[in-house]
Write a structure and sequence with these properties.
Elements: H1 2-10, E1 15-16, H2 32-45, H3 56-70, H4 75-89, H5 94-101, H6 106-120, H7 122-135, H8 141-156, H9 181-188, H10 191-205, H11 209-224, E2 236-243, H12 248-251, H13 257-272, E3 277-279, E4 285-288, H14 293-306, E5 310-317, E6 325-332, E7 340-343, H15 361-364, E8 379-381, E9 386-391, H16 398-405, E10 410-415, H17 425-440, E11 444-448, E12 454-456, E13 462-465, E14 472-479, H18 486-490, H19 493-503, E15 518-519
Parallel strand pairs: 2-3, 3-5, 4-5, 9-10, 10-11
Antiparallel strand pairs: 1-15, 2-14, 5-6, 6-7, 8-9, 11-12, 12-13
Helix pairs in contact: 1-3, 2-3, 2-4, 3-10, 4-6, 4-7, 5-6, 7-8, 8-10, 8-19, 9-17, 10-11, 13-14, 16-17
Length: 520
C-alpha cells in the first residue's frame, strides 16, 4: 500500500500503546530533513487530484501520508513543507505567467512563485500544529483534524484577501456527496476528504482498525447518503457564450483592436438568431468606451440589429475624476441606449492592484494595472431576469456568489485565463466556479476568452462546453432559479459557531484496546 511504501522513510522504531494519551507529538530528530522532503513531495501531488487530472483518490493518500508524518513531530515544519509542495511546486504555472506578462526575469519569476507558495504554506503548517496540540498522539486526531481542516480552508479563503485555490471541498464535484455543498459550502465540504484521510492513517499505518474503520464508515455514509443537489425549475432560456480566442499578447495591441471587435461581432451575429442571451468574456472590449465614442456607437449599432441582450466584459472610468478604473460587465438591452454596468469587487492581488505593504513591486513589475474595487450590487437587471456577475477571480469566492444570488436568478462568470497558457490553471479555475453553482442552486454561465467556456448546472455538472484555445460559440439552455439554499441563507456562520468551541476545549481521548497500538 502507498502508506506502507513510504513508511520506511519514517524510520518507525518504537511501538507504544496509548491509553488516553496526552503526549506531545514525538520528534524524529535525526531525519527531519527526510520527513520534510517527503512531506513536500506529498504536497506536490495534491494538484493532480483536481482538474484537469481529477485523481481524487490521490488527495486522500497524500493527506494520509502527511498526517502520518506530522504526528511524529515537528508538526509546524512538516505542515509548511507539505504546503510548499502543494501551493509552491503545485502552482508552477505562476512562474511562466510572471515571466511572460510581468515581465519578470526567470529567477525573479521563480522566486515570486516560491514566495506565494511559502505564504500559503503557513495554513497547512498551522493546521498540523493545532491538530497535534489538541489531539497529541491519540485517537482524538480522528475528530480534531477533519474539523480543523474546515477551519484552515476557511482561513485560506479570507486571510491576505483570500486565495482558496484548489480547495479540498471541490473534490466532492462529480461524486454522490456533492449535495452537501448546498448546506455547508466548499469550506465545510473539506470535512469528508479530511476524515477519509485520517481514517486511512489509523487503519493502514497505525493498525487501529476499530477507530479508523469507524471514521471511514461515517465518511462513507455521509458520501452516499448525501442530500440530492437542488434543481433550478424556472423559465428556460437559450444562451450563446462567445469564445473569441484572442491571444493575450495581442489583446491590448492597438493594431489588433479592429480584428478583435469584428471577431466578436461576427460570432455574435451568427448566434443571435439561436439565443435569448449573448455573453462575451472578461474585457472583451479592451478600451474605455467613455473615451471611445466612435467604437461605442459602432458596437451599439450592431447590437441593435441582433435584437438580443448582450453581456460583455469591459472597463469603465470612475465618474468622479476619470482616474479610477473598474473592471466589470456591461449589459445591452434591445430598445435602450444606455448600457448598464457593474464592476468587480474582489480584485486580484499583484494583477489588478499591488498591496500597499509591498511598494517595491511597483518597480519590479511596472506594467501591472491599477484598478479599484466596485461597490455596486454586482447584479444587472434584464428584461425578465437578473444576472449576478462574477468577474474572473471572483468565482473562486463563495461570498461573492452568495451575495449576487440573493437577488439574481442566474450567475454569469466572464473570464480571461489566457495569462496561464496551456496549464492546469484554467481547469482549476473552472472547477472552483462550478462549486458556486451548487452552493446557490443557480446555473453558472461561463464565457472565457480562450476557454474553458461552459454552461454549469446547479448540481455542478458541465452541460455544454467547447475546447479551449479554439474560436467559436457554446450554445445551450439554462433555467432561472429563485431558491435560497441553506448555505446561501446562512453562509459559513454555522461552521464558525461549530469551530469556536472546539478551539477552547480539549476533547477526551478515545481509549485503544489492548490490540490497538500506534507505530511511532
Amino acid at each position: 500500500m502507498f502508506l506502507n511504501y513510504i513508511s520506511p522513510l519514517w524510520q518507525m522504531s518504537l511501538r507504544t500503546k496509548l491509553h488516553y494519551s496526552h503526549m506531545p507529538c514525538r520528534t524524529w530528530r535525526n531525519s527531519s530533513w527526510v520527513r520534510w522532503v517527503v512531506a513536500c513531495l506529498l504536497g506536490s501531488l495534491m494538484p493532480y487530484a483536481f482538474s484537469p487530472y481529477d485523481y481524487k483518490w490521490l488527495a486522500v493518500l497524500a493527506l494520509a501520508g502527511w498526517i502520518g508524518l506530522f504526528m511524529r513531530g515537528r508538526s509546524f515544519a512538516t505542515g509548511w513543507a507539505f504546503g510548499l509542495g502543494w501551493f509552491g511546486i503545485g502552482a508552477w504555472w505562476l512562474a511562466p505567467t510572471f515571466h511572460t506578462f510581468g515581465p519578470l526575469a526567470w529567477p525573479w519569476a521563480v522566486l515570486a512563485t516560491g514566495l506565494v507558495g511559502s505564504i500559503l504554506a503557513l495554513f497547512p503548517a498551522v493546521l498540523a500544529w493545532c491538530s497535534c496540540m489538541l489531539a497529541g498522539n491519540s485517537s482524538r486526531m480522528l475528530i480534531v483534524f477533519p474539523i480543523l481542516a474546515v477551519g484552515e480552508e476557511w482561513l485560506r479563503g479570507h486571510v491576505f484577501t483570500g486565495l482558496p485555490w484548489t480547495p479540498l471541498g471541490s473534490l466532492l464535484l462529480d461524486t454522490p456527496a456533492i449535495g452537501w455543498a448546498a448546506f455547508v459550502g466548499v469550506y465545510g465540504a473539506a470535512l469528508l476528504p479530511a476524515l477519509l484521510a485520517v481514517s486511512l492513517v489509523f487503519m493502514l499505518q497505525f493498525k487501529c482498525y476499530r477507530r479508523g474503520l469507524t471514521g471511514a464508515v461515517i465518511a462513507g455514509i455521509c458520501m452516499f447518503a448525501a442530500p440530492a443537489p437542488y434543481r433550478a425549475e424556472g423559465a428556460i432560456h437559450r444562451v450563446a457564450l462567445v469564445q473569441a480566442n484572442i491571444p493575450q499578447k495581442l489583446k491590448w495591441n492597438a493594431n489588433f483592436l479592429n480584428e478583435t471587435m469584428h471577431r466578436y461581432v461576427r460570432l455574435s451575429k451568427q448566434a443571435a438568431s439561436r439565443s435569448d442571451l449573448i455573453i462575451w468574456p472578461e474585457v472583451a472590449v479592451p478600451m474605455f468606451l467613455g473615451k471611445a465614442p466612435q467604437w461605442r456607437e459602432w458596437l451599439l449599432r450592431h447590437m441593435k440589429t441582433w435584437n438580443t441582450p448582450v453581456l460583455f466584459g469591459g472597463l469603465k472610468l470612475d465618474a468622479g475624476g476619470g482616474r479610477i478604473a473598474h473592471n466589470g460587465i456591461y449589459l445591452f438591452l434591445p430598445g435602450r441606449e444606455e448600457l448598464q454596468f457593474v464592476g468587480k469587487e474582489h480584485l486580484v492581488p499583484f494583477g489588478e492592484y499591488v498591496p500597499s505593504w509591498i511598494p517595491f513591486l511597483h518597480a519590479m513589475v511596472p506594467n501591472i494595472a491599477d484598478f479599484r474595487p466596485s461597490r455596486d450590487s454586482g447584479v444587472l437587471q434584464g428584461a425578465h431576469e437578473r444576472y449576478g456577475s462574477l468577474v474572473c477571480y471572483e468565482a473562486i469566492f463563495p461570498r461573492e456568489a452568495r451575495q449576487r444570488a440573493n437577488t439574481a436568478s442566474v450567475l454569469v462568470n466572464v473570464v480571461n485565463d489566457t495569462w496561464y497558457g496551456h496549464t492546469p490553471a484554467a481547469w482549476q479555475h473552472l472547477q472552483a466556479a462550478r462549486m458556486r453553482a451548487v452552493e446557490t442552486d443557480r446555473y453558472l454561465l461561463r464565457a472565457a476568452n480562450t476557454g474553458v467556456s461552459a454552461i454549469v448546472a446547479p448540481d455542478g455538472t458541465i452541460q455544454e462546453s467547447m475546447d479551449w484555445f479554439t474560436q467559436g460559440v457554446v450554445y445551450g439552455t439554462y433555467r432561472d432559479s429563485n431558491t435560497k439554499t441553506f448555505y446561501q441563507r446562512w453562509g459559513d456562520l454555522p461552521l464558525l459557531v461549530w469551530m469556536v468551541p472546539l478551539l477552547f476545549m480539549r476533547l477526551p481521548a478515545l481509549p485503544f484496546t489492548h490490540k490497538e497500538t500506534l507505530n511511532l
